[in-house]
Amino acid sequence: MKRNKKERQSLLIETIQDNPFITDEDLAEKFSVSVQTIRLDRLELSIPELRERIKHVAEKNFEDEVKSLPIDEVIGEMIDIQLDSTAISIFDVKEEHVFKRNKIARGHHLFAQANSLAVAVINDELALTAKANIHFTRSVKQGERVIAKARVISIENDRTKVEVISSVNNECVFKGEFDMFRSHSPEQ
Amino acid sequence: MKRNKKERQSLLIETIQDNPFITDEDLAEKFSVSVQTIRLDRLELSIPELRERIKHVAEKNFEDEVKSLPIDEVIGEMIDIQLDSTAISIFDVKEEHVFKRNKIARGHHLFAQANSLAVAVINDELALTAKANIHFTRSVKQGERVIAKARVISIENDRTKVEVISSVNNECVFKGEFDMFRSHSPEQ
HAMAP family in the record, alphabetically (chains A, B) (predicted)? Predict the structure, then answer.
């Protein structure tokens, strides 16, 4: 459905508030307009581009929010967390994270980002990984930014299942399901 | 079955040649004698203790054997490799590998040891992880030595399945099945 400019811009503000990580491309598709139109809308509304928005969110400090480990033990930069629900982190793939030969990111770094996010999202002093089922869906190259999103999908007694999906430019690069052990069952 | 000392010592030599990583405890059980007896046998036969045997094997350099990555990209120390068949590495868990709070090894380090061994065992210039199914079967503490053994369980076209079992003092701490992508199918 085409909207007039005023309607669209007001919905745009709302949409970006809900999901600061949405790309201009996704917004264009959502509102059936060109990417260029979205850029102009953002300029008029003084909404910074995605990269800047991410940086801004990243300046928040989640030290007090995370319970299961000190924030500096999270691999990547935590940019959002709702305990026992969702968490997001970003990880910039640098020279030290790739195979020398082909500049492809080594699996254990993507795993470390996802796994530490799965630990961090748990609302408990102790969280350990019991099992994981992971897929590397496309290779990540040096210089790319990986956004990992963790979502708690079930909590049963001392076990919590966390799904983590990591993407680069909105394309899924890693998917994992983590079975986490926690020391306390949350109150129902 | 109890054997006389001569028989036992000759079998002992054979057993240790087959598996240099077998512990005195396992040998004692195997031959239905005390650990003390095994130690005395080793002394008489001048067979060094397990720790020394591992060190000795570790002095070999596998630079020329490994094809899929430079040896210094293997996490842990490679101590044996038969391309497209089996590989073994050891990894000493130090302060930088554990959670500060409880000194338990972080999952991604055990994963990194196993995953890089699964890459190294592949007889190809290019090997990438597609999927993995992993279990952390007991926590590993700072100061412990993890021995990972990789075994190729199937090769089909550009896919190779590798099983990795990591243990501390012969007790399984990590088990993983890795689906590896390779650039060439090996000749049949």
Answer: Transcrip_fact_FapR
